Amino acid sequence: MAITNTQRAKPAGTLYDVQLLFPVLFLVGIGIVMVYSASSALAMKKFGSDYYFLKKQAVFALVGICVLVLCRHVPYRVYRPLAYPLVALALALLGAVLVSPFAVTAGGASRWLSLGPVNFQPSEFARLALIVYLAYSMEKKADRIKEFSIGFMPHVVVMGLLAVLILRQPDFGSAAILAFLAWLMMFIGGVRLTYLGGSCGLLVLLGWYYINSADYRRKRWDSFWDPWQYSADQGYQATHSLMAFGSGGWWGAGIGKSYQKLFYLPEPHTDFIFSVIGEELGVAGVLVIVLLYVLIIWKGIRIARHAPDLFGCYLAIGLTAALGLQICINMAVALALLPTKGLTLPFLSYGGTSLVMNMAAIGILMNIAASGKTARGLG
Questions:
Q1: Which of 56, 86, 99, 213 could serve as 129's disulfide partner, Cβ 3.0–4.6 Å?
Q2: CA distance to 175, 197, 236, 256, 275, per residue, from 103 (Å)
Q3: Is 342 exposed, middle or buried (0-12, 13-18, 19+ CB in 10 A)?
């Protein structure tokens, strides 16, 4: 049989999706610069070198790029039989955070495991494990997805086990993302709205009980409604974050010229890096960041729509939704539109686990995209 020019073309499996890769690498590059800008004063005070966080973030970025390349070339269908082992590993790691001597406590929360020179946050891995499990399970049960005992209850149980362990750390924000992810993926998978609606109401009641079960969480909720009234304690982060955005104006004060990062805004290089961006790069810089995120989410949705099978579709939806939720929650917290929660901003905030896991998600999305092109004969 004669081989046409189209058949000689480079196979899709060796290509990188530039429309997805460019905004991701651009954000990682901006993140390295902004991590240095936001952390230099803090690093000098605590570690005697203003390059401390910059060097670590650069290493995280390099590792993340390697993980992205690896995940790009590993067929996404490999994760299908690993669904249950990944969930089991996530449960073991989350349990280790609560009882292991390797657990690291900071800010009153135990969310990390010490692995030599680096700390690992199991809740980030648990999110990926849940997405893989739901994608596998919903594809397997597609013809019976509307049954309560088949399409709804098992998924809620697995999500609940992961969420309970995360709440024990405590980390309400990560647990809420898991719950919303499971709800969204089940909704797209075709689970009955009556089950989803009832579970949503129950989650709201449980969330309200959880908030009111501890005095500091209740005060944080009260300060959300009027942060300026509590600006000296519970509303301190929100008010200084708003000050940073307000002083940035349209064009910003310039890179390295943030005032709020100078020991006023807590965690300026992690949870509130978006506030430093707002102050130093202004509205213009914020809009560029938002546009890059919109491109990533738009591309993720397109990949899901053109996935070659249901597993790839659900996997792409879950990975894209997880990124979108984390982006929206972090930005909303920085703008005082949500109560303060400790969530990083993907690709920008300092943190190895978050950056590496998000880069892995991008690599998996690229593999799904390439597989979809191959299936449609566009390789």
A1: 86
A2: 19, 37, 28, 34, 30
A3: middle
Running DSSP on this structure, what letter comes out for residue 115? Answer: E
Instruction: Give residue-wise pLDDT tens across range 134-158.
Output: 999 999 999 999 999 999 999 999 9
Sequence letter at residue 44: M
Question: pTM for this one?
Answer: 0.90
d(CA 236, CA 223): 9
Give the dihedral of Cα atoms 205, 208, 212, 214; nearest 10 deg: 100
Give the pLDDT confidence of 214-261 residue by residue, as tens digits.
776 777 777 777 777 777 677 778 888 889 898 888 998 889 888 888
Q: Which residues contact 327 (CB under 8 A, 6 or more apart)?
A: 293, 297, 345, 346
- Strands (E) across 77-209 are located at 103-106, 109-115, 118-120
Domain ranges of the chain: 14-73+234-379, 80-213
Cis before residue 308, ω within 30 degrees of 0? no
DSSP 252: -
- Whether 35 shows a pLDDT value over 80: the answer reads yes
What gap in Å lies between CA 358 and CA 347, rounded to an integer? 7
